[in-house]
Design brief:
Strand 1 and strand 2 form a beta hairpin. The chain is of the alpha/beta class. Helix 3 runs parallel beside helix 8.
């Protein structure tokens, strides 16, 4: 009798144990798993910090100032890099042509196609510049080369110590005479042995310089043209040069070394005036034989490049239909400064792809 009771107890215990094991296995199979076969977290177990990061990432991807073609990461999700900022360099002068410094961000307003923009960056620092000198060595410069070289030396002496220069000489064709250097002496030494001859390929030289200056290490970029006559030997047309300049963020200054008989007084002069104005630079036309005036102009250009304001903004209509955006800068100076004049580039090409 005792043996039967013990046997029944063992059978009951075995049935209960097997049932418990089967139930545990069934529960384990019902737990959802992710791709790494780890148990998935419930909503209550999800990290609030992770949720916040995800929301921020979505906000970043929606910013209007992003690249058109996103880079894809290992998970094939877009990694978007911010870009699309427009830089505007502004020169401010008073009624006497003196540079006005000491203004701040609140004194300026920037308009893109007549729409006011928020200034995202402002600086009045004495920043270095990557600068190309486009130097006329055609035959008509023979009697003027020495005076212009002495004036150019003064320009270099008044430039920022960290400026990097390159030199393009041109007559029948344009040629890179000196690659980027911070040594003014090295730059000037390349002009000492120049023998002026040939005709004038000004447009080719300017086009080459616009391309070359993009390689400069400084954000701020400028060109200085020194010539005594209009173009008569270029492969590029003026229209092609003008279109290329509109695409580039570069200031152009020009010194037309002229006298009353020079052809530059006509069409050539208007060309220099237009390409300098549209970039926010300026053109000067001293007498060919007035060396002090030429030296003064070179000095002024060097100082102007060091006393400018840098403004930048993210366009609100970056992907609009307009291919050319016209820029306007307004100034609200402190009382007592009188009427002020501004120089800046007059527009920029749309970021929208063709």
């Amino acid at each position: 009798m005792r043996q039967k009771s013990a046997r029944a107890f063992l059978v009951t215990l075995l049935v209960v144990t097997l049932s418990a094991i089967s139930s545990a296995i069934a529960q384990k199979q019902d737990v959802p798993k992710n791709q790494d076969n780890e148990p998935a977290k419930t909503k209550s177990e999800a990290s609030p910090a992770n949720a916040a990061t995800s929301a921020d990432d979505k906000t970043i991807l929606k910013k209007p100032d992003e690249l058109r073609a996103p880079i894809r990461g290992a998970d094939q999700q877009p990694i978007v890099i911010g870009t699309g900022i427009v830089n505007v360099t502004v020169t401010v002068t008073d009624l006497y042509g003196r540079f006005v410094t000491g203004l701040d961000k609140d004194h300026f307003e920037v308009f893109d196609n007549k729409v006011k923009q928020q200034i995202a960056h402002f600086s009045d620092d004495d920043a270095p510049v990557s600068l190309g000198i486009i130097y006329d060595v055609s035959g008509s410069m023979k009697e003027r080369i020495s005076r212009s070289i002495r004036a150019l030396r003064r320009f270099v002496e008044n430039s920022h110590e960290d400026d990097d220069f390159f030199l393009i000489g041109f007559n029948d064709r344009a040629k890179l005479v000196q690659d980027f250097t911070t040594s003014g002496d090295q730059l000037m030494s390349r002009l000492v042995l120049v023998q002026p001859k040939g005709s004038t390929a000004l447009y080719d030289a300017a086009y080459l310089a616009v391309e070359k200056v993009q390689q400069g290490r400084h954000r701020k970029k400028a060109l200085l043209i020194i010539s005594d006559g209009q173009d008569n030997n270029s492969r590029y047309t003026y229209k092609e040069l003008r279109n290329r300049i509109k695409e580039a963020d570069v200031q152009i200054y020009a010194i037309g070394i002229t006298d009353m008989t020079d052809s530059l007084a006509g069409f050539g002069r208007s060309v220099l005036e237009e390409i300098t104005r549209m970039t926010g630079g300026r053109s000067f036309f001293p007498n060919a034989y007035n060396e002090p005036e030429l030296v003064e102009i070179c000095t002024r250009i060097a100082l102007e490049l060091r006393r400018q304001y840098s403004l930048a903004f993210y366009p609100t209509d970056r992907e609009g239909s307009s291919k050319w955006h016209r820029l306007q800068v307004k100034i609200h100076p402190p009382k007592g400064l009188g009427r002020l004049s501004l120089s800046h580039r007059d527009g920029y090409q749309s970021f929208k792809s063709n």
